[in-house]
Amino acid sequence: MEIKEKNVFVTGSTRGIGLGIAHEFARLGANVVLNGRSAISEELLAQFADYSVKVIGVSGDISQETDAKRMIDEVISELGSVDILVNNAGITNDKLMLKMTEADFEKVLKINLTGAFNMTQAVLKPMTKARQGAIINVSSVVGLIGNVGQANYAASKAGLIGFSKSVAKEVAARGIRVNVIAPGFIESDMTDAIPEKMKDVILGQIPMKRIGKPEEVAQVVVFLAQQEYLTGQVIAIDGGMTMI
Ligand SMILES: NC(=O)c1ccc[n+]([C@@H]2O[C@H](COP(=O)([O-])OP(=O)(O)OC[C@H]3O[C@@H](n4cnc5c(N)ncnc54)[C@H](OP(=O)(O)O)[C@@H]3O)[C@@H](O)[C@H]2O)c1
After folding, report:
1. Predicted model pTM
2. To pair with 104 at 20 to 30 A between CA atoms, which of 46, 68, 148, 176?
3. Distances 16 to 23, 25, 53, 134, 238 between C-alpha atoms, Å
């Protein structure tokens, strides 16, 4: 798929990996939709001024079905279509399983998995009509190999993989592709919050011995959007952490 002049909706793009993905698409000439639960600031929109593309902000909570539908409708009435959806927004709420409550579990599932479901559901009808579209879901290496204290997060990210493969099979004949990236340890607010001691442990598990950058993840997302014969796949971008 040619990226230039396509309309790309990146959920959770006010900072971190999502913001990096939005910049990479804009750099390549795509119009981008920025999203987060909080209001999209003028300062954030101004970051995109030099790309000569359309940039709009729609705030809303992807875990709420009505918000997801409203946001997709808003973008379609403003830009005409959503050609590429990147389900990036996600949260963590770490606790050891023995201390994890049902509410702790549900909170993460509701945003990371149901949120992607809501956005995909809202975008599929218009994509089906257009007989083209690319959906890229942001999972995690934790969804592939698990992690201590992240049973909720791992379940949501592993669930996203099964979800993506199922939808990929359903919509492939309609010209819509669904793929997954599984980032490892990437620079962001999410990883900044990890205590230094823990970071050293994680670095010890990365063969490349460094943290990844949002722009490195963004390049893989763009590749998945562009490549027309690729669907239902999971690409780990993790400095060699998983190698499966
Ligand atoms: N950082 C890593 O090392 C790493 C590794 C593997 C996978 N990932 C995955 O990559 C994605 C991005 O991670 P990140 O580290 O960049 O996170 P981050 O810096 O914490 O940013 C999260 C983004 O998601 C938005 N968001 C959160 N809940 C939302 C909701 N319910 N509806 C709409 N937007 C919401 C946030 O905006 P508001 O706060 O305004 O809502 C923010 O823009 C996540 O899915 C994460 O699980 C990250």
Report:
1. 0.98
2. 68
3. 11, 15, 21, 22, 16
Residue 201 counted as domain residue: no
The answer to whether residue 195 sits within a structural domain is no
Ligand 1 centroid, distance to 88 Cα (angstroms): 6
Residue closest by Cα to atom 37 of ligand 1: 36
- pLDDT at residue 229 is higher than 90: yes
pLDDT, mean over the chain? 97
66 occurs within a structural domain: yes
Domain count across the chain: 1
Task: Answer whether 211 contacts ligand 1 (Cβ < 6 A).
Answer: no
Measured by CA distance, the residue closest to atom 34 of ligand 1 is 36
Domain span at residue 70 reads 7-186+213-237
Q: Is the pLDDT of residue 89 over 90?
A: yes
Is residue 146 over pLDDT 80?
yes
Tell me how far the alpha carbon of residue 173 lies from the centroid of ligand 1, in angstroms.
Answer: 31
CATH number at residue 116: 3.40.50.720
Q: Is residue 87 part of a domain?
A: yes
* Ranges of H-type helices in the chain: 16-27, 42-46, 65-79, 102-109, 115-130, 141-145, 151-171, 189-192, 196-204, 214-226
What are the catalytic residues? 153
